[in-house]
Amino acid sequence: MSRRSISLLKNLRNITNGSKIQTRSVTYMPRPGDGKPRPVTLIPGDGVGPLVTNAVEQVMEAMHAPVYFEPFEVHGDMKSLPEGLLDSIKKNKVCLKGGLKTPLPVGGGVSSLNVSLRKELDLFASLVNCFNLPGLASRHENVDIVVIRENTEGEYAGLEHEVVPGVVESLKVITKFCSERIAKYAFEYAYLNNRKKVTAVHKANIMKLADGLFLESCQEVAKKYPSIAYNEIIVDNCCMQLVARPEQFDVMVTPNLYGNLVANTAAGIAGGTGVMPGGNVGAEYAVFEQGASAGNVGKDTTEEQKNANPVALLLSSAMMLRHLQFPSFADRLETAVKRVISEGKCRTEDLGGNSTTQEVVNAVIANLD
Hints:
alpha/beta, 2 domains, Isopropylmalate Dehydrogenase, NAD, single chain, transit peptide, 12 helices, 12 strands, ten-stranded mixed beta sheet, two-stranded antiparallel sheet
C-alpha cells in the first residue's frame, strides 16, 4: 500500500474514532442580505420589566446579534396603547416585551393592555414551553410541555355588563374560525417540531356548546395529521394529571382561560415562572415575553433589590432569534443560559440563590461561545 493510501486510511480512522475534528451542520441557507440587523420593537413594561429587558439588550450586544431595539414607554395603567407602538410592531413584525401590570378595578376600569395588544395584532396563538433545566431541581423529571392557547376570544373577549345592580353577565365567546385556526397551529407546531402528541383541554361535559365546538374543531384538524397522536382531557382532570404525571403531556391546545391556568401550573412544576419562555404569534406579527404570567412584573422588593430572574425573557429572546432565522445566535444564547443554571453558582432568589439580575447577566455573557 502506498504512503498516500496509508495516510488517507489514518485520517479516516481519526474521523471515525471521534478525533478533535470540528463538524458543523447547516441549519439554514440564508438569503443574500439576511445578516442585516433587524429592528425589534421593545416594551420594557412595568415593575421588573425594564430590568429583565435590559438584561436581554446586554446579552444581545455581547453576542453582536443582528438585532437592534426601538423602545416604547408603555405602562399597564394607561387607558390605551401609546401612539406609534402598533405602527412600530407592524413595521418590524417582531416585539420583545416585559410585563405589564393589569389593574384590578372594582366595578369597571382600565382594561388589560396585554389583551388589547393581542387583539389589535391578532396574535391568536400563545405558546409557553415548560421543561426541566439540567441542574435545576424539580419534583418531576422528563417534563417538556408546550402549551398552545387561543389568545383572542373565550372568557377574555371582554364582553361584560351589569344586568341589574349586583348581577354581572360575562360572556364566553367560542367561534369555529378561531377554534380551527388554533388547532391547526398546534398540530402544525407538533408536526414541524417532531412532537408526538397533541392534547385538547376542555370542559365540554358542562359547556357542551362552547367547549363542544372547540373539541369538534380539534377533532376535525386531528384527522389531517395521522402521524400525531391526539387525545382530550377535561380541564380539572388535566390540572390533577399535570401535578401527578406531567411527563405524559407533549403539546397541549386550549381555549383562552384554561391555557392561562395550565401554562402557569406546568411552569411551576418544571422550575418556576422565572425560567419558562414564551411568545404570542399571529399570521403576520409576533410578540415575545416571559412565558408564564404569574408575577411577571415582580414584587416591589424584587424591583428594589434588582434581583429579578432574567432567564425566562432571555430564553424567550432566543425563541425570537430563531423566529428571525438566526438559529446560531439562538443556540449560543440558550447554551449559555443552560450552563449558568447547570453550574448553580449564579441564581436569583426564586431559584434558591442570592444573585442579582446583573450577576446572572454577567455569568451568561461569560458563558457565551
